[in-house]
Design brief:
heterodimer; A: alpha+beta; Ubiquitin-like (UB roll); five-stranded mixed β-sheet; 2 helices; globular; B: alpha/beta; Oxidized Rhodanese, domain 1; Rossmann fold; 2 domains; eight-stranded mixed β-sheet; five-stranded parallel β-sheet; 16 helices; about 35% helix; disordered C terminus
C-alpha cells in the first residue's frame, strides 16, 4: 500500500490524520481509495472534469506527477504520494 | 655562518625567474590561465593593486597558495612593492613544487612607472571590519563579499511572521538596503512570533516598527519604508529598484502579482509560506528555474485558502522558514552555494522533518512559458482582472 501525505488544509476531511496508507496501482486509484476512506477529499483535488486542479500538486515521491503521467502514473507499494495545495500564509 | 640580506637576495634572484613590468603585462595578456598574485600587506593592497591580482600576503603565502592556485603547473606572476618580497615568495613557491613562477622586478612601484593599469579597491571601514569580522573570516564571504552585501538591495514584502526574521538577520548581515512594504499596524497578537516588533510599538505601522529595530541593530542599513499595500499600480515603482525579493506576504493576490512582475523584471523571489506547523519554501529565479505559476498555475478557491488570522501558526515556524529564506537571499547576493531553485523544501515542525520535492519549469506557463504573453498578463493585473479569491476561512465540503 502506498503512503499518502495529507496537507494540513485537508486534515479536517481526514479527521486530523496526516498520513494514510491506501491501495492503488496509479495516482488516480490512490485518490479513489483515499476518497473512500475520507469522503469528498478527491473533490478538493480534482476539477469537475476529473483533472488535477491547477492549485494542487501531487508528487510521487519527489516528482510532480504532472511531469510523469498525471493520474495514470503507476504507483508501487513503497511509494509516497504527497498532496500539496498552494499555501499563501506568510505575514500570519 | 649566515648570509647577509644582500647576499641572500642576490642568491635568490639568481635562482628564480624575473619579468619586468612590461614583460609581465605581455605574459599575463598572452597566458590566459596565468595568475597574478599580490603578496604585499593588506594596508598596501588597499591603497591600490593591479587589476586581476589576487591578494595573498607574503606571511600567509605557504598556507594559502594551494587553495588559491591548486594546479601547480599554473603560471604565476608575483609582485610586491619593489620586487624583494616577491622574489623570496617565488623561491618558496618553487620549493613547494610550482613549476612556472615569476617575480615582477620593480614591483607595484615599477608597474606604475611603466604605466600599467591599477585599481583602488573599495574597503570596509574599521568599524565595519569589526562588525562583520565573522563574515570576513569565512572565505566564501570575505571583504569583497561583505562589500557586495552592503551594495545589495532586498525588498521584503510583509513585515510580519516571515518578514520579521528576514529583516532582522539580513540587516545584521549588512545587506545595505532593505525595502519593507507593509500597510498593517503592530498588534499585540503579532508579538508571539513577529520578533522585530515590541510592546511599545503596538499600534505603529509594522514597516516603521521594523525600520526602528533595524536602525538600532545596524546603522549601515538603509531602510526604505512603504506603508502601503503592494498593487499593480505601485509595484513597478518599487520592484525594479531591488536586486531580489523576499516574499512573506499572506495572500495569493500579492503572490501572483509579485511573481508576474518579478518575471518581467527578472528579479529572483525567495518564496515561502507557512501554516500551523508546516512551512514550505523555494527560490524562484525567472527563466532559470520555475516561477510560482509553473508550480501553481492558478490560486485555490477561497475554501482551500485559509490565510488570515484564524489559521494560526506555531510561533517559531516563521522564524525557521524565514531564516531559510534569509539563507537563500544571502547566497544569491553573494553568488555562492546552491540555491533552492527547482526544489521545494517542506518543513513539518511537529515531526521535525524536512522533505524536498523537485520543481520544474512549465513550458506552458502563462508567465514564463514558451508562448507566454507576459505583457497581457501584467495588463490584466493593472485592470484588476486577475481574480483571486479574497481571504475567507469558511471551509466548505462539497
Amino acid at each position: 500500500m502506498a503512503k499518502v501525505k495529507i496537507p494540513p488544509i485537508l486534515r479536517k476531511l481526514s479527521g486530523g490524520v496526516k498520513e494514510s496508507e491506501v491501495e492503488g496501482a496509479t495516482i488516480g486509484e490512490v485518490l479513489d481509495s483515499l476518497d473512500r476512506k475520507y469522503p469528498t477529499i478527491k473533490n478538493q483535488l480534482l476539477t469537475q472534469d476529473g483533472e488535477i486542479a491547477r492549485f494542487v500538486n501531487l508528487y510521487l515521491n519527489d516528482e510532480d506527477v504532472r511531469f510523469l503521467q498525471g493520474l495514470t502514473t503507476p504507483v508501487s507499494a513503497t511509494d509516497t504520494v504527497v498532496i500539496l495545495p498552494a499555501m499563501s500564509g506568510g505575514a500570519l | 655562518m649566515g648570509q647577509t640580506f644582500n647576499t641572500l637576495l642576490k642568491k635568490v634572484k639568481s635562482e628564480i625567474q624575473e619579468l619586468t613590468p612590461a614583460e609581465a603585462d605581455k605574459f599575463l595578456g598572452e597566458n590566459r590561465p596565468a595568475r597574478l598574485l599580490d603578496v604585499r600587506e593588506k594596508i598596501e593592497f588597499d591603497e591600490g593593486y593591479i587589476p586581476g591580482a589576487t591578494h595573498v600576503p607574503r606571511g600567509h603565502l605557504e598556507a594559502r597558495i594551494e587553495e588559491t592556485v591548486p594546479d601547480k603547473s599554473t603560471p604565476i606572476v608575483l609582485y610586491c612593492a619593489g620586487g624583494v618580497r616577491s622574489a623570496f615568495a617565488a623561491q618558496t613557491l618553487e620549493l613547494m613544487g610550482y613549476t612556472s613562477v615569476f617575480s615582477m622586478s620593480g614591483g607595484y612601484g615599477g608597474w606604475k612607472s611603466y604605466g600599467g593599469a591599477v585599481v583602488k579597491p573599495r574597503t570596509l571601514t574599521a568599524a565595519q571590519q569589526a562588525r562583520y569580522s565573522r563574515h570576513l573570516l569565512v572565505p566564501e564571504v570575505g571583504e569583497q563579499g561583505q562589500l557586495k552585501l552592503l551594495d545589495t538591495k532586498i525588498l521584503l514584502i510583509g513585515a510580519g511572521g516571515l518578514g520579521a526574521p528576514n529583516a532582522y538577520y539580513l540587516a545584521a548581515a549588512g545587506v545595505g538596503t532593505l525595502g519593507i512594504i507593509d500597510n498593517d499596524v503592530v498588534e499585540e497578537s503579532n508579538l508571539q512570533r513577529q520578533i522585530i516588533h515590541t510592546v511599545e510599538r503596538v499600534g505603529q505601522y509594522k514597516a516603521d516598527s521594523a525600520a526602528k529595530a533595524i536602525q538600532a541593530l545596524n546603522p549601515d542599513v538603509t531602510v526604505v519604508v512603504y506603508k502601503e499595500r503592494l498593487t499593480a499600480s505601485n509595484i513597478e515603482r518599487i520592484l525594479p529598484q531591488y536586486d531580489l525579493v523576499v516574499d512573506g506576504t499572506d495572500n495569493f493576490e500579492t503572490r501572483y502579482l509579485v511573481n508576474d512582475f518579478a518575471v518581467k523584471y527578472r528579479k529572483p523571489v525567495i518564496h515561502a509560506s507557512i501554516l500551523s506547523f508546516n512551512g514550505q519554501l523555494t527560490t524562484l529565479i525567472p527563466y532559470e528555474g520555475p516561477c510560482y505559476r509553473c508550480i501553481y498555475p492558478d490560486p485555490p478557491p477561497a475554501a482551500l485558502a485559509p490565510n488570515c488570522s484564524e489559521a494560526g501558526v506555531l510561533g517559531v515556524l516563521p522564524g525557521v522558514i524565514g531564516l531559510l529564506q534569509s539563507n537563500e537571499a544571502l547566497k544569491l547576493a553573494l553568488g555562492i552555494g546552491t540555491s533552492l531553485a527547482g526544489r521545494f523544501l517542506l518543513f513539518d515542525a511537529l515531526e521535525a522533518e524536512f522533505t524536498e520535492l523537485k520543481l520544474r519549469r512549465d513550458p506552458h506557463c502563462v508567465a514564463c512559458g514558451e508562448h507566454a504573453d507576459l505583457d497581457d498578463l501584467l495588463e490584466q493585473h493593472r485592470r484588476g482582472d486577475v481574480l483571486i479569491p479574497a481571504c475567507q476561512i469558511a471551509y466548505t465540503q462539497h
